[in-house]
């Protein structure tokens, strides 16, 4: 079979020639860029080291940048745009300094301020900037930011439930995540891609408390600095980490009641001195959920004539126990060098009970028998991850080097018991019960290292970045099934398998940008080489792949006037199959259904274009287009080797052409009401030939998300979220419209250090999925309900000192590999 990912010699050869030219253009000059510097003094002759220094817009005191003064009291802000600013400094035990004006009149100005004098004071710091609350949703040219810690309706929820309310994000009935109508999304936690997909990823996010999340970034067109994976964008979940000096922490607890109970508890701690920053967190989630899924399956012959059906009612009950921990330290070796280490992990146990009732319907459309499958499945997940990092600032110009080494280990254990009984119409058993027992032992290790270099290009008012990365992945999954119908343990070789997988990805990138008075330009190029091999031990079948790809990216923005800004970005990206999607063994669901991996599954490649217009720094319009080849879609189709048996697997379609229009319209009434409204219109057209079916399918779709916050007297506030999604198409699947609403209230007390929140999600219990799948020889209708209508009461308490300071957050080097671990 010809590999479509072989080197595109002509295109790549031309692009390779551009790399040295790109480096030359953006490293050719050296002159001073706009900077603001100064000193913080305790007395006229005594400098104050490690003071918190903030650069604010003069007009509204909004934060531009923050830093700490070094041991000599000196501070420096680089890359500052022309404008009016003010600088303030603060330190525990000292009063807030008087604001110092800083007017930058040109891009090349090096502004040095008079010394900032501090004086001791017993008065608690009360800066406008610190008390000001970020809006729930922030729109930027390249991303949308959802500030989860400010959300009332997110309190007590899980990260998955928060994602479902995010603008443009959809989670389907199979727990697949899409953004603005496109699947192939990369999900990251603190810059590290999550090693899971589908139901595995959803279960991990269900075990993550929203109270541990600071914000969620939705990045639609990433630069070359990011891994090339994720052709529809990146969802980066940023966890809370206290930025304050001294000892600080947060405690949270919540209880929710839907059909079943749910609870979240967690604590975050941070201790920061001049030389050390120690931090840690622990979260525990206990949830019970249900998933009711009704399916009507119709089987057709080669002429399209009806030959039989299954009418099925599936009930799944879940009990999730999840422990998540994280501990780390930063050591400030000098004002220019920081060393860091982070250790994290989770222990998750998910017990799933299944009750499947299926009525067998003959070719005449008459029920003739039935079967009932009950199952008890125990999923155990153990993860440990270690990150070692270094950041070194080479000189005062701003040149810096960062490096990361990561080691991640995952351990999966599953125990599965299935019992199927067969009945006639009189409810009498017509054959002996079928007993199936299975175990899965899986291990995955990821070793990754990267190094990045950044240099300001003072002469042209820009920056240059370059980096390299290498990762090694090994996976070992052993699935064994045994037929216990006759009282013994008879190996079922048709369902059992042992799959081994090894992968090595090596990458390098260059990224450069320049800013003018009204315009900005960013160019990037990433090179990735992938070497992979997989072996199915049973049958000794396998595959090998070795391909190299170039991934260019470019972005430009231009300020037409004070009210109008334009931005444009283009990129080429890849979405590699997850390791489970490549794994060829069969996963038994019931006698009529099994899931299987596909070792022939190829990565999908996309070219994306986006045009952005911003009016009055608030109203944002985005026009998008992308062309994707070898589109990976989840397909339900009849097994060609068995009668009335359905196979669920990922396969490659030929192409997907996507056209999108996104509108963001915030508005406010006084200072008590704020509303952010996001609408996405898109059309995705799928083309290809699969399972004997020629597909050319697409339809216009509209998604709407409205987030509204109300400030009430006496430290009360309220929030209302509404979501509407019109009929959508994903390959062979069509999903009916969905709408739901969530609301909550909050009361702050104890000098705003504590809060109590009460919210109700899916108030009218309308978040239910109806869908339809049609192929040449198979049709299916489904109706799904989950435990989405939940009332939650939560408590949050912040303790410690309240002085803000800049934090150092590490992302690690294993982002893309960890997402694909399952």
Describe this structure as you would to a colleague:
There is one protein chain. It is globular and about 95 Å long. 6% of the residues lie in helices and 63% in strands. The protein has 822 residues and is mainly beta. It has a 22-stranded antiparallel barrel. It has a 6-stranded mixed β-sheet with strand order 10-11-16-17-14-15. The chain is built from 6 helices and 47 strands.
Rg of Cα set:
28 Å
Mean pLDDT: 82
Q: What quaternary form is this? A: single chain
Number of strands: 47
Strand content range: over 45%
Uncertain segments of ≥5 residues (pLDDT<50)? 1-32, 121-132, 802-810
Overall form: globular
Distance between the termini: 26 Å
Structural class: mainly beta
| Biggest sheet character | 22 strands, antiparallel, barrel
- H/I helix tally: 6
**What is the helix fraction of residues, given as a range?**
under 10%
């Amino acid at each position: 079979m010809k590999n479509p990912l072989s080197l595109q010699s002509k295109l790549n050869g031309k692009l390779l020639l551009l790399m040295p030219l790109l480096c030359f253009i953006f490293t050719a000059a050296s002159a001073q860029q706009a900077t603001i510097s100064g000193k913080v003094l305790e007395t006229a002759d005594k400098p104050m080291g490690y003071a918190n220094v903030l650069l604010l817009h003069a007009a509204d005191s909004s934060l531009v940048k923050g830093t700490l003064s070094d041991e000599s009291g000196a501070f420096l802000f680089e890359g500052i745009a022309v404008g009016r600013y003010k600088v303030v400094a603060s330190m525990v035990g000292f009063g807030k300094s008087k604001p110092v004006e800083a007017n930058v009149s040109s891009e090349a100005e090096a502004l040095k301020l008079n010394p900032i004098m501090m004086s001791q004071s017993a008065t608690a710091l009360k800066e406008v900037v610190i008390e000001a609350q970020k809006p729930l949703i922030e729109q930027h040219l390249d991303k949308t930011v959802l500030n989860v810690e400010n959300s009332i309706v997110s309190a007590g929820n899980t990260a998955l439930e928060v994602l479902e309310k995010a603008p443009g994000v959809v989670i389907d009935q199979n727990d697949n995540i899409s953004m603005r109508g496109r699947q192939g999304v990369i999900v990251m936690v603190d810059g590290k891609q999550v090693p899971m997909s589908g139901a595995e990823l959803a279960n991990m996010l269900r075990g993550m408390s929203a109270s541990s999340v600071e914000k969620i970034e939705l990045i639609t067109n990433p630069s070359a600095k990011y891994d090339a994976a994720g052709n529809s964008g990146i969802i980066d979940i940023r966890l809370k980490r206290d930025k304050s000096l001294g000892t600080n922490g947060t405690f949270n607890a919540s209880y929710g009641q839907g059909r079943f109970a749910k609870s979240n508890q967690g604590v975050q701690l941070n201790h920061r001195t001049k030389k050390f920053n120690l931090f840690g967190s622990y979260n525990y989630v206990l949830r019970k959920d249900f998933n009711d899924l009704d399916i009507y399956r119709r089987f057709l012959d080669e002429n399209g004539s009806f030959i039989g059906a299954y009418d099925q009612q599936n009930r799944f009950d879940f009990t999730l126990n999840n422990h998540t921990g994280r501990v780390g330290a930063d050591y400030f070796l000098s004002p220019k060098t920081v060393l860091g280490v982070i250790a994290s992990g989770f222990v998750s146990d998910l017990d799933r009970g299944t009750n499947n009732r299926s009525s067998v319907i003959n070719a005449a459309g008459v029920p003739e028998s039935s079967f009932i499958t009950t199952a008890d499945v125990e999923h155990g997940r153990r993860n440990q991850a270690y990150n070692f990092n270094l950041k070194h600032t080479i000189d005062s110009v701003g040149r810096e080097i960062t490096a990361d080494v990561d080691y991640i280990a995952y351990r999966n254990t599953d125990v599965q018991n299935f019992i199927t009984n067969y009945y006639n119409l009189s409810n009498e058993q017509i054959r002996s019960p079928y007993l199936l027992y299975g175990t899965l032992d899986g291990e995955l290790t990821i070793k990754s290292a990267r190094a990045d270099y950044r240099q300001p290009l003072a002469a042209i008012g820009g920056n240059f970045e370059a980096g390299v990365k290498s990762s090694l992945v090994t996976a070992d999954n052993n699935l064994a099934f045994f037929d216990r119908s006759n009282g013994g343990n008879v190996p079922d070789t048709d369902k059992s398998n042992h799959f081994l997988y090894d992968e090595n990805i090596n990458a390098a990138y260059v990224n450069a940008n320049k800013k003018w008075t009204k315009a900005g330009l960013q160019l990037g190029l990433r090179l990735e080489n992938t070497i992979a091999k997989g072996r199915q031990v049973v049958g000794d079948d396998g595959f090998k792949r070795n391909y190299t790809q170039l991934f260019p990216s470019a972005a430009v923005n231009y300020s037409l006037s004070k009210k109008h800004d334009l931005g444009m970005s283009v990129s080429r990206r890849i979405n590699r199959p997850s390791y489970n999607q490549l794994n060829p063994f069969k996963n038994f669901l019931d006698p009529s259904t099994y899931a299987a991996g596909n070792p022939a599954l190829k990565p999908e490649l996309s070219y994306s274009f986006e045009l952005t217009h911003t009016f009055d720094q608030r109203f944002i319009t985005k026009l998008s287009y992308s062309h994707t080849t070898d589109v990976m879609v989840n397909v339900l189709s009849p097994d060609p080797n068995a009668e009335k048996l359905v196979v669920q697997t990922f396969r490659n379609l030929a192409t997907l052409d996507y056209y999108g229009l996104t509108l963001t319209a915030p508005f406010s009434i006084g200072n008590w009401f704020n509303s952010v409204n996001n609408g996405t219109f898109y059309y995705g057209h799928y083309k290809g030939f699969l399972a004997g079916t020629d597909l050319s399918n697409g339809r216009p779709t509209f998604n709407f998300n409205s987030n509204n916050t109300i400030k009430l007297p006496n430290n009360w506030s309220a929030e209302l979220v509404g979501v509407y999604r019109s009929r959508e198409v994903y390959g062979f699947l069509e999903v009916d419209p969905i709408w739901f609403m969530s609301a909550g209230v909050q009361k702050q007390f104890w000098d705003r250090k504590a809060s109590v929140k009460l919210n109700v999600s899916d108030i009218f219990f309308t978040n239910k999925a109806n869908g339809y799948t049609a192929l040449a020889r198979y049709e299916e209708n489904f109706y799904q309900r989950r435990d989405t209508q939940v009332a939650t009461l939560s408590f949050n308490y912040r303790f410690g000192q309240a002085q803000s300071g800049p934090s150092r957050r590490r992302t690690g080097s294993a982002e893309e590999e960890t997402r694909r671990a399952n």
